[in-house]
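Milestone M4 deliverable, item 7.
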Amino acid sequence: MRKILAIDAGGTSSRAVLLDMTGACGGFGRAGAGNPTAVGIASAVDALGLAVERALGGAASPSAADSFVVVALAGAATPPFLSLLEARLTHLGLHGNIVIEPDLLGTFSSGTSGQHGYAMIAGTGAIAARVSDGRIHTVRGGTGWLLGDTGSGFWIGQQIARAVVASLDGLGPSTALTPLLLKATGIERTGALRRGRSEELSQLMQELYSLRPVELARFAPLAFEAGEHGDVESGTAQDVVASDILEVAASGIARVLAAAVESDAERDVEPDVEPDVDGCVVLGGSVLAAGLARAPDIFLHRLRAAAGGSELVMVQDGVVGAAVLALRHLGREVDVEFHRRLTREVDRVRSPAVCE
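Output delivered:
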């Protein structure tokens, strides 16, 4: 029997699900970041291989079983990445085709059985797209940590780092983010000086500069924590610095979404460009999930305005969509009811999955 694997290769974590043509799921696996742009080719392939191995039940199969694998991935899949991934999957007994699809399409197809609409992902990066006839039609944002992605996990993490460093350096206001970031980096606040600077500032600078820039995204949740609880030590109910960071982040994300949704007339495009499509806006990524759950007053009205009246649908990740894309490649029609059943099946096998 053909083995169908659907993989969502994220910048922070990856997920894989084993399924058949009926939509029944036989296993689920989760592992670390599977995006080669974010973590490098070798690390990404290791993570994807581990997620697949767990979905298969933890053991490689020596048989040359026919397989079909779809990977929802951000960015381009380079020949070295594809070669190493193919070798890893072959080692696991998967000798069939590997198809790479955009992560935006995986996210979109996780939220709807429709083939027209919009997708927005704000996780490590921030990117939006218009989907038409089941394919990516127009992309906005996603230019990366160096050139754009305002509101992304990286951007929020960088703003947190800058705010805390400025506060410790006497160049910015006090913020509840300071003790949170020091704790997250394992630095104790002693008040001691080193060469005219506080010991904790010197250690924090060393720690932050030792990271790859994109790794600052790991600190993004601290903004939501400070925004919710403020500074416990000082009794401040709401941290202004953290709230300001989230306000700008929400505006940046909404601006990218609006650029994907706005009408062709407003963009003054050529007349042969496909007109606006009807459909929902599917939202994905850790920043949007946290924003809607933990800071809805900041995020929700901006997203609704950017969506232009379209329904907003939040999804956990893109693995259901990757499964939808795999089945459609194999000729299976995915209607509303089938999509619901497939989503329930993925959730069923996802729940007991171990998060190593």
